[in-house]
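Q: I'm writing a short explainer about cysteine dioxygenase for a general audience and would like to include a description of its predicted shape. Could you first generate the structure from this sequence?
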Amino acid sequence: MSNVTLGDVPRSIENFARRCATRDGEESIVSADGGRPSNGQRAILRAVSHLRLRSADDYAVCAFMLDCGQSIPLHNHPDMCVHMRVLFGRAHVRAFDFVHDNVHSELSTKEATAGNGRRHQARLVFDETVFESGRGGAFTLEPHRCNVHEIRAVTPCAILEVQTPPYAVDGGRDCHYFEEVEQASATEFLLREIGCPDTFECVRFNRHGEFDAYT
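A: Of course. Here's the predicted structure. Afterward I'll give you a sentence or two in plain language.
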């Protein structure tokens, strides 16, 4: 388990927010010689930012920073409960329930990446803008409720997320991505599993708000 304490969480968020507040300020990532960022480093500045605050076998606490218009594409949290809270700004969340209970056992990242992902009936159950803490900013998904969801930043925003348990490929909890391929009614959709979209880029920071990895 990480040795970060709960008291470190506000400081981590503060550092994280300060370093990500101005993507074009170029203050969080500099080139090797201390100069202005390279084109690749600029791409990192434009990516969705992810901060891992604490992790254990049975839970993980993390945060995401998104610029206005950025999004985390339609994805799931298999056999997981996730509590999300908007720390600042506004984000629009759309969430689906699969019509059939056995969908998760049929998902395959390998097949989806190869373009052979299966289609599954789903029902839109949540389609709202959530606000910062204290103004309706909390959202919870469960294994069979709102589990497939996407997040789009209406304004620059940060979202705190508690996952129980966290993603674990070996534990059958891999992240799967989806796209809408057909809409039968206002709430009835057909979703197809796909590989991680090429348009989705995420940069990871450590708990001190320092650059860690680009994925």
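A: For your explainer, you could say: Residues 78 and 173 are 5 Å apart (CA to CA).
Q: Perfect, that's easy to follow.
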